[in-house]
Design brief:
This protein is mostly helical. Helix content is 78%, strand content 0%. Helix 1 runs antiparallel to helix 4.
Length: 88
């Protein structure tokens, strides 16, 4: 199984395509990716620099952690409310 592309590699590929020395289809063939993947990546990362992409990745990871924390706290709060309501 091939290792997934990193954000930095994807942006490098997109910059290489912008130079325009080879066609998109030829570049995709050389790199072993589908044109669909290329255009999906272009839509997702096309306007980002490597620094911006890293920041985006960090923010997405932080957002995921915060969502998990909120879910855990919500469950704990719900359990406490349930216990509290049974005492009365």
């Amino acid at each position: 199984m091939k290792k997934p592309w990193t954000t930095e590699q994807i942006i490098g590929l997109l910059r290489e395509a912008e130079v325009g020395t080879t066609s998109i289809s030829e570049l995709c063939r050389q790199k072993g990716i589908s044109p669909n993947s290329f255009y999906k990546w272009k839509k997702q990362f096309g306007d980002l620099s490597v620094v911006e992409a890293r920041r985006l990745k960090d923010l997405e990871a932080e957002n995921k952690q915060l969502k998990k924390l909120v879910a855990q706290l919500s469950l704990a709060n719900l359990a406490l409310e349930e216990v509290n309501s049974k005492k009365w």
